[in-house]
Amino acid sequence: xxxxxxxxxxxxxxxxxxxxxxxxxxxxxxxxxxxxxxxxxxxxxxxxxxxxxxxxxxxxxxxxxxxxxxxxxxxxxxxxxxxxxxxxxxxxxxxxxxxxxxxxxxxxxxxxxxxxxxxxxxxxxxxxxxxxxxxxxxxxxxxxxxxxxxxxxxxxxxxxxxxxxxxxxxxxxxxxxxxxxxxxxxxxxxxxxxxxxxxxxxxxxxxxxxxxxxxxxxxxxxxxxxxxxxxxxxxxxxxxxxxxxxxxxxxxxxxxxxxxxxxxxxxxxxxxxxxxxxxxxxxxxxxxxxxxxxxxxxxxxxxxxxxxxxxxxxxxxxxxxxxxxxxxxxxxxxxxxxxxxxxxxxxxxxxxxxxxxxxxx
Length: 361
Description:
Elements: E1 2-3, H1 14-24, H2 40-57, E2 64-69, H3 72-82, E3 92-95, H4 100-109, E4 114-116, E5 136-138, H5 152-162, E6 165-169, E7 184-188, E8 199-204, H6 229-244, H7 246-263, E9 268-269, E10 280-284, H8 290-296, E11 300-301, H9 317-321, H10 326-330, E12 332-336, H11 343-358
Parallel strand pairs: 1-11, 3-4, 3-5, 5-6, 6-7
Antiparallel strand pairs: 2-8, 7-8, 9-10, 10-12
């Protein structure tokens, strides 16, 4: 199987796996302690959690607190729900290309929620007119379907001018590019070669949130539940590795991008080519039957859109937001590649996909 679906999830880094094993059992069979317990095993586990917190903090801007969560969806909900006052229905503004965790939460919280449009490149304008009294502005840094990068620093400035908080979904940016400025930032470990089931919310100093889950409030009074030392240790190791080899990974991805663009020269690129994370190639071909393509090339793992929306039968809201009609959106595929993708396997997969597409007539 040739894996080209890095936006859905990434392969676990060996270094992350090794860091996790100590806290699943450990060489002495005593790595299973609860990090919230006061005895020696608990203190050892707690130390592992805090070391991981320091490692994950290096992904974010300075001047904030890292709260571990089960993933970015929980982090986003904590940010959006925890920042609301009781009965607060003030407007929330989100970009039209946000992940469903942001879009659906916004409209669940506020009947006055609005979407910020994007242009044909897939980029939102920080100068767009927004409702008076907007309490929260949410714009992702790197889009999960197209890879297009948003001007999040400018949106943070806009939010401050309005007296609003700025939330950034940095899931596809973390560990790949420096994360931009925000008040609240959500990430997920499995998008940068860490384990699934763990993520984090970064909260800027001075931003106050309410806990939205009753219980022990183990994470700084903001999130309840026992933290898994194994998962956060894996996330911490993955974060440290991503920081250490960010430049190397970027150079590798650029080389893969050039190869893929040359191979698919006759296909149309969806979204900006310049303002883009180049580990994401979202392309389309007129008349392409994507379902048939997936069936014909079963040993290449790629996507017809966001993994979270697959099987819905609906065209991608991201592709329609950039101006594609339903037919164009349905003839699009997404190839995702990164650190562990080899040039030879990418070229082979491209050749097979191009041949199978041509055989459709």
